[in-house]
Amino acid sequence: MRHPRTLYAGLLALVLLISSGVAALACTKVWDAYTSISAVNITAPANNTGVGIDQAITCTVAAASDQDHWVESGTHGYPWETSFSYTWTATAGTFPNGNTGQSVTWAAPSNPGSVSITCTVNDLSQVVPPDAGTRDDLARASTITAKVIRLDKVRVYYRTDDYPGNDGNTTIWALLWATCDDQRVYTSEGWAYGQWYAAGTNGPLAVFEATPTVSATVYQWPADWPSLTHDWTKLYQQASAPDGNDNRVYSYDSSAPSWNGSWGADITLPEGTIRYKGTTIMYNGQPRPPKQSVTSYDKEIATRISVRGIAVDGYSIPLDPNNLTYLRWLFAYQNVPYEWGGHWFGGSDSGGQYAGGSGAYDGYGIDCSGLVCCGARHAGYNWSSWRTDTSGLAPADDTQSNYYTDPVSYANFAPGDILNKRESHVMSCYRRVGTGNTISIIHASASASKVTTIPNSTITEWTDDGYKRRRLRPH
What we know:
The protein is mainly beta. It has three domains: 29-148, Sandwich (Immunoglobulin-like), CATH 2.60.40; 150-307, no CATH class; 321-472, endopeptidase domain like (from Nostoc punctiforme) (endopeptidase fold (from Nostoc punctiforme)), CATH 3.90.1720.10. The chain has five helices and 28 strands. It has helices at residues 4-26, 321-332, 368-378, 390-393, 459-463, and strands at 30-32, 42-44, 49-52, 56-61, 69-72, 75-77, 84-90, 103-107, 113-123, 132-133, 140-159, 169-179, 183-187, 194-197, 205-208, 218-220, 228-239, 251-260, 264-268, 272-283, 291-295, 304-307, 405-407, 418-421, 425-432, 438-445, 450-458, 468-472. The strands form six sheets. Strands 3, 7, 9, 11, 12, 13, 16 and 19 form an eight-stranded mixed sheet that branches. The protein has a six-stranded antiparallel sheet with strand order 23-28-24-25-26-27. Strands 17, 18, 20, 21 and 22 form a five-stranded antiparallel sheet that branches. A hairpin with a 3-residue loop joins strand 24 and strand 25. The longest helix is centred in the N-terminal third of the chain and has 23 residues, at 4-26. It is rod-shaped. 36% of the residues are buried.
């Protein structure tokens, strides 16, 4: 039998053990996820923001918040969560510097289209034993859409009352083809639906109507897409490619920048032929310098604008209206480069083939007889075979007429008449001072490499050199 003191000591130890366990239980916090994680707010980029292909932008999300709850011995606490994870995902593109954190860099893909960018937020605090319960909330996420844009092409259009223009007053405008989810044609305020001339051998008409069933719909460039600027350069065509090069391309003097910034403008042009080249630049994301740009083609798509001569003066004898019309058309060809065998402004036709030139190559410019024939064709001379050469323009016997021309006397030689040297060259008179010897001529000059003028010369210096005075015959 145990001693009473021993039994008492054992009971006391048991009581102390139970008491300590109860005390420990009373000091344990029991946790619960009191509130959900706050709504996730992606602060940049905004939904449907545009960004160029292959360009990087900064994505940011607002700091999350969450309040938990614990109870201990009848006491309650409501602490705020302080630790969260931010994980970014996207349906396309990459995160070159990692995809975690409140701020990350997202690089757009190389293909255009809509991309979903998602930020998922999780709380990280855990219940530490001997506390019980949970502090874990359901993850929250937010998704925005980025519009990845590819610039495809820009084309230059212009509108005037007729083609070429009579007075040089025209409106020139850029239309931009760009692709996101689909390819569309874009412009800005100032564009008006109607008839616009595009590039081509004869300036084909482009009719843009407000109803897409008729023609392409032209959209406004969205305000939440990257900013655009437009650089315009006035191009004076100098020559085509060197002789012997079958792949003919234009050569320009592009040293005359015109204006920058706007999609288009109302302009007044001098007589002759020039082109405008338009470059559309899109600034992408942050920082600003990375960009993509498209430029209108330097071939015929760099729209040719041809303005006819406005007046012919300095001659005291009334001129045949055909002569005046003919001369006005000749002046529309000023600055067009010389090209043996050429007989047009130069460029590609609607099928993509280059117009003009001989059978040996596709020419881009115009030669001396081609200029005369084009002017006569435009002016309505109605020649059944409208293209001929210097031998066809006049017979060997200069006293005789042929299908194209008649001889004309010195006294009656007038603006609109030609000086023709068979198998050599032909020029047109555009000014004669009274009935004197001094004249001005326009011609397609091989030495000048373009259609140009000689303001001061004499009839006799040309006739002494074998040129014959001829007058074009209408039919």
